[in-house]
Amino acid sequence: MAILFISDSDSPAEWLKELQELSPNIDFRVWPNLGNTDDIETALVWKAPPGALANLPNLSLIQSLGAGIDHIFSDPQLPTGVPIARLVDKELTRQMVEYSVLAVLNRHRRAETLREAASEHRWHVVPSTPLEQSRIGVLGLGEIGLSIAQTLASLGFIVQGWSRSPKTITKIKCYQGLGGLETMLSATDILICALPLTRATNAILSTNTLSLLPRNSYVVNLARGEHLVEEDLLTLINKGHLAGAFLDVFEKEPLPQNHPFWDHPNITVTPHLAGLTIAASAADQVVENIRLVGTGKPPLHQVDPRQGY
Ligand code: GLV
Questions:
Q1: Which residue ranges in the chain fall short of pLDDT 50?
Q2: What is the pLDDT of residue 25?
C-alpha cells in the first residue's frame, strides 16, 4: 500500500519524516512520480492538479492536508465513492484563533490609528474601545469558528455566532438561517468569517450582507477568498460604511501585485498564513485515518460530498 503526496506548498520531506516515525515502512510517493498506480491507496493532498486522483484504481482515502476541502471538491474528475477527510488539528486551530485575536485587537485597540500617529511622531492617546462597540460576529461555528468565538468570549468580548444548523454554546449568542444572519450582522462591529467554502457560502459577503453591518464595522476573513466579493468590500470601505478589513485569503492568490487592497490604508493583507499545517502535529491523524480505512471504518473528520464540508 502506498501514499501519494500532492501539494503545491507543503514539504514532502517533512511529511515523509513525520509519517516514517509513526510508520517506518511507509511507501511514500510524491506527485508526479506515481510508480505503479495499483499500489496507491491513500492520497494526501493540497490543491492537487485537476484529474490527479482520477486514475488510481485502489484509492481508498483522500486526506486533505488542510482544514478546508474545497480544493478537493473543485476537481471535476474527482473519483466518487472514496472517503474524503479534512484535518482537524489542534495546532492548526490554535493558529487560526491566534490570527483572529490579532485581527480583532488590531481593530479594537485602533492599531492603524496608532501606527499612523507614530509615523508622524505624534503622541496620540487612543483609549480602548468600549466592549459594546466591538461586538464580535463569527460566521461558522465548526471546530475553528467555535474556538475563535470561545477564545474571544473568554477575553471579555460580546460574541455571537452564526451556523447552518442550530447550536447552543455557553456565552455565545447563536444564530442560524438567513434571518439569523441578518439579525447577527446588524449587531456586529467586527465580523470574522470562518466558514467552509460551499455553494451556499460562496460570495456570502457581498453588498447585500456587508451593508447590514453597522457603520464603522470591520471585516476579518481567514476562511476563503471566494466568501467575499472584494469589489463590494472595497466600495463599502471607500464610501465610509465599513472601517476596514483584515484579510488572509483572496479571490486570486497570491494577491496580484496591482490589487487595490495592498496599498489601502484601512486594509491589512496577509498571505494566507492564518493556519499553516504542521506535519509534526498532524501526521498521527493521517496515520490513524489510514488505519481506520484499512480496517473498513470511516476516517476521522470525513466530509459529506453533498454538503461540501
Ligand atoms: C487552510 O487554508 C486550510 O484549509 O487548512
A1: none
A2: 94
Please give the pLDDT value at position 287: 97
- 29, 71, 224, 227: which is the annotated catalytic residue? 224
Q: Supply the pLDDT for residue 309.
A: 86
For ligand 1, pick from 9, 277, 281, 301 the residue to mutate: most ligand atoms within 8 Å of CB: 277
Distance 66 CA to ligand 1 centre (A): 4
Q: What is residue 117's predicted lDDT score, i.e. its pLDDT?
A: 98
Active site (annotated) includes residue 215: no
Residue 277 CA, ligand 1 centroid: distance in Å: 8
In this structure, the residues whose C-beta lies within 6 A of any atom of ligand 1 are 66-68, 92, 275, 277
For ligand 1, the distance from its centroid to the CA atom of residue 265, given in whole angstroms, is 27
pLDDT at 200: 94
29 is an active site residue: no
Q: Which atom of ligand 1 is nearest to the CA of 272?
A: 2
pLDDT in tens, 162-199: 999 999 999 999 999 999 999 999 999 999 999 999 99
Q: How far apart are the CA of 197 and the centre of ligand 1, in A?
A: 11
DSSP assignments along the chain, one per residue: -EEEEEESSS-HHHHHHHHHHHSTT-EEEETT----GGGEEEEEEESPPTTTTTT-TT--EEEESSS--HHHHT-TTPPTTS-EE----HHHHHHHHHHHHHHHHHHHTTHHHHHHHHHTT-----PPPPGGGS-EEEE--SHHHHHHHHHHHHTT--EEEEESS---BTTEEEEEHHHHHHHHHHT-SEEEE-PPP-TTTTT-BSHHHHTTSPTTEEEEE-S-GGGB-HHHHHHHHHTTSEEEEEES--SSSSPPTT-TTTT-TTEEE--S-SS---HHHHHHHHHHHHHHHHTTPPPTTB--TTTT-
Residue 307: predicted pLDDT: 86
